[in-house]
Amino acid sequence: MRVDAPAPPRRSRWGGATGPVFVSLYTVLLLAFGLGPTGYAIYLSMTNASGQFTGLGQYVKAFGDFRFAGAFVNIGTYLALWLVTLLVLVVVLALMLHRLGRWASSALRFMFYLPGALAGVASVLVWLFMLDPSASPFSSVLHLLGQDTLADTILPSHLALVFVVIAFWTGAGGWIIVMYGALNNIPLEVLDAAKVDGASTLQLAWHIEIPMIKKWIYYMLILAFATGTQLFVEPQLVYAASGGDVSPTWSPNELAYTFAFQNGNFNQAAAVSICLLLLSLIVALFLVFRSGLFDVEEDA
């Protein structure tokens, strides 16, 4: 007896349009608030206040400013400390959470994520209070470290580390949860096989778990680098709290703000902004190609 194969389900005439419909709004917003402003910034960076084309003239003037090199050295120091701290502590804490029981893991994940509910300004104000030896609940520790006043704590040489502490406190919790979720996607059969072969906890983490969440780690580094180059609120509030002891152009974003709103030179401000954009793009492309972040895994 002949049995006919079931007919394939009939596709709706709208089925092929679902994807474009879902991404259309994002595309409009990307053009309006992403690519559009970027194109305008590029135009400003290559013209003068009269709209005359100057080529790389605005970049040369920005590079020659006495504050330019210092701002980029500051942000480079901050990024180096921030990315290393984020990479090590987030991965280690996620691995530790993954080994805990369900209830303990849930409670700790909530605690890690909670500081991220504070806006950037609020988190800086909290930490200014925490770092003030005259008001901090950890004043004895600060005095032990030789910090007797807030001015001692927020010395220019300490700022990169201070900003790393603030950034980790507010932003690392979300990444710990992301890494925890990535670890949960590792097949249990792989982990069990490694344990049967005698892998220790450290070997399991180094040779199995970390390589299998490598793409997520690279993704975290890309976004953390891009966010770190945009540092503005933290140094601005610390500058205000220091009474002028901290430079108002500590970061490149502050320098661009000074060019635009104090000097009235939007063209040089745009040049600094494009420099930051190019720096982020170069690092992002390097990490993307290094990690194969967007490689499609084909089934065998």
UniProtKB/TrEMBL annotation:
<keyword id="KW-0812">Transmembrane</keyword>
<dbReference type="InterPro" id="IPR000515">
    <property type="entry name" value="MetI-like"/>
</dbReference>
<protein>
    <submittedName>
        <fullName>Carbohydrate ABC transporter permease</fullName>
    </submittedName>
</protein>
<dbReference type="InterPro" id="IPR035906">
    <property type="entry name" value="MetI-like_sf"/>
</dbReference>
<feature type="transmembrane region" description="Helical">
    <location>
        <begin position="216"/>
        <end position="233"/>
    </location>
</feature>
<feature type="transmembrane region" description="Helical">
    <location>
        <begin position="269"/>
        <end position="289"/>
    </location>
</feature>
<feature type="transmembrane region" description="Helical">
    <location>
        <begin position="21"/>
        <end position="43"/>
    </location>
</feature>
<feature type="domain" description="ABC transmembrane type-1">
    <location>
        <begin position="72"/>
        <end position="287"/>
    </location>
</feature>
<feature type="transmembrane region" description="Helical">
    <location>
        <begin position="110"/>
        <end position="130"/>
    </location>
</feature>
<comment type="similarity">
    <text>Belongs to the binding-protein-dependent transport system permease family.</text>
</comment>
<feature type="transmembrane region" description="Helical">
    <location>
        <begin position="159"/>
        <end position="183"/>
    </location>
</feature>
<dbReference type="Pfam" id="PF00528">
    <property type="entry name" value="BPD_transp_1"/>
</dbReference>
<keyword id="KW-1003">Cell membrane</keyword>
<keyword id="KW-0813">Transport</keyword>
<keyword id="KW-0472">Membrane</keyword>
<keyword id="KW-1133">Transmembrane helix</keyword>
<dbReference type="InterPro" id="IPR051393">
    <property type="entry name" value="ABC_transporter_permease"/>
</dbReference>
<feature type="transmembrane region" description="Helical">
    <location>
        <begin position="75"/>
        <end position="98"/>
    </location>
</feature>
